[in-house]
Design goal:
Elements lengths: L14 E5 L11 H10 L3 E8 L5 E3 L6 H4 L10 H6 L1 H4 L8 H7 L4 E6 L2 H14 L5 E4 L3 H11 L4 E4 L1 H9 L1 H8 L3 E5 L1 E2 L2 E2 L3 H9 L4 E4 L4 H10 L3 E4 L2 H10 L5
Parallel strand pairs: 1-2, 1-11, 2-4, 4-5, 5-6, 6-7, 7-10, 10-11
Antiparallel strand pairs: 2-3, 8-9
Helix pairs in contact: 5-6, 6-7, 8-9
Length: about 250
């Protein structure tokens, strides 16, 4: 059972996450992708955030601005106005949403927020506080320093994930890990470099330590079924229709 302190995890298991929204026919990490996910019945979205040069936090995965806006250089070196004025954005289907806009615009959705740079780690806690959405978000990062910074600013009020970088510490001492690091959930790949990471035994150890296990990013039926058979508490996917169909077949879609 998820820890009752974390409203984000208070949902029937397993949780289905639309990774960067439902972007089969629209651009990822956009208003359109989040709307499409909600239309499919998803209530959980995995997304990414970065800081701009003028102190905004935008929904964006890549460090460089080419795929987002067709611009050279890093996202962090560009202003929000420069990104939104780029032809790929202003004349095309791509969007540059602010995190604050998305949280306000989708009040029924819960967001798993991957903090991609230092600026975002410093700004996201304030955005969450101003939005008053402590129970609708989970904050995580591949960077331990970014995650520690966000955790300190949020003062234990928000669910945070323990990513791969903290996983070794969990393996060394599962029962003391949760108290020392204060995560709410482990979020891991099913396997990496040919090594199985998420196993039934590992999930049992995590549950004994009070930690659910979410698996990313599963885009084929075999891996989705494997994670469900192992007892994963959540699955992130770029194939939301496929995941929904399998959960429905098992009587687990809610």
């Amino acid at each position: 059972m998820p820890d009752p302190r974390w409203a984000f995890l208070d949902s029937p298991q397993p949780i289905a996450f639309a990774h960067r929204g439902a972007h089969l026919d629209v651009a990822e990490n956009t208003w359109m992708a989040f709307t499409a996910a909600a239309a499919l019945g998803y209530r959980y979205i995995e997304t990414d955030v970065r800081g701009t040069a003028d102190g905004h936090v935008i929904i964006c995965h890549d460090a460089r601005a080419h795929r987002l806006a067709g611009l050279s250089g890093r996202v962090s070196a560009l202003t929000l106005a420069e990104l939104r004025a780029a032809p790929a954005v202003s004349d095309g289907p791509v969007e540059v949403p602010l995190l604050s806009e998305v949280l306000a615009g989708f009040p029924d959705l819960r967001f798993n927020i991957d903090v991609k740079d230092r600026a975002a780690s410093e700004l996201v806690p304030g955005i969450i506080r101003r939005a008053g959405c402590y129970g609708r978000v989970c904050v995580t990062s591949f960077s331990r320093s970014r995650l520690r910074r966000a955790r300190a600013a949020l003062a234990g009020r928000v669910c945070t994930g323990a990513p791969v970088t903290e996983f070794v510490r969990f393996l060394a001492s599962p029962r003391s890990f949760a108290g020392a690091v204060h995560p709410a959930v482990l979020q891991l790949p099913l396997a990496a470099y040919g090594v199985q990471i998420v196993t039934a035994g590992m999930i049992r150890r995590a549950h004994a330590a009070g930690l659910p296990v979410h698996v990313w990013t599963l885009n084929d039926l075999a891996s989705i079924r494997a994670a469900l058979d192992l007892g994963a508490d959540g699955i992130m996917t770029d194939q939301p229709v496929l995941l929904k169909e399998e959960l429905t077949r098992r009587g687990l879609w809610r």
